[in-house]
Amino acid sequence: MLLLLVALAHAETIGAAFPPPAGATRVEADAYGDWLRARPLYPDGRPVKSYAGDVIPIGAARVVDLPIGTRDLQQCADSALRLRATWLRATGATPAFHYTSGYLSSWAAWAAGTRPKVSGSKVTSVSGAAAPSASDPTFEAWLMDLFMYAGTRSLPLDTVAVTTPRPGDIVVQPGSPGHAVVLLDVATDGARTWVLVGQGYMPAMDFHVVAGPAEGWFPVEGETLPTAPLAVPWSGLRRWK
């Protein structure tokens, strides 16, 4: 246990592993953006793995040390939801996000023992369905439920459209298949803007830093952010409410 704690304390972070492109400087971030920059990475060379432990042949600059669960649920939009929910909970706030149906799933309600009852597109809340608990396993169970019913179509319900990227923003293409990526960092060089991008994908897999052309970074240009295997349109740039 002591060796594990020492290893985690010395884990390389996103911010340390990916300095801005030459001549660029990081933009000022809010508390969430700073938290993202401090997320730990697995050692360099560690491949992206699926929820089942299989190696996934996908282009990744580094793999972020972030839980993915043991079911095929935490995909692209879900990775963004986990990051935001984990940060909110760590700050003492109460995360709450919408299902695609419009139902608001609240961690506070789940911790109090309330559970959603899904019948087709109708969702109702059942109080006292479980014993109250605010433990880590209960939080994980809430996330897995959220991932089952949320996705790229629900993210617009919890975000607002913006035009200038900031660390912590997401870029979303709602649909089936849709895609969503997280802007882990942003830097500028005069008139140019660069972004460091993280994503999950299908099947549920490790959240990873996408390999951009400039030592991991992507220039903000054109109409799309050319992440692979799916690009996303810059018109889908959004910020958490």
Would you mind describing this structure in some detail?
- It is a single chain.
- The protein starts with a helix and ends with a strand.
- It is built from six helices and 15 strands.
- The longest helix has 15 residues, at 76-90.
- The protein has one domain.
- The chain is α+β, with helices and mostly antiparallel strands.
- The chain is 22% helix and 26% strand.
- The strands form four sheets. Strands 1, 2, 7, 8, 9, 10, 11, 12 and 15 form a nine-stranded antiparallel sheet that branches. It has a two-stranded antiparallel sheet with strand order 3-4. Strands 5-6 form a two-stranded antiparallel sheet.
List keywords for this structure.
single chain; 241 residues; globular; 15 strands; disordered N terminus; 26% strand
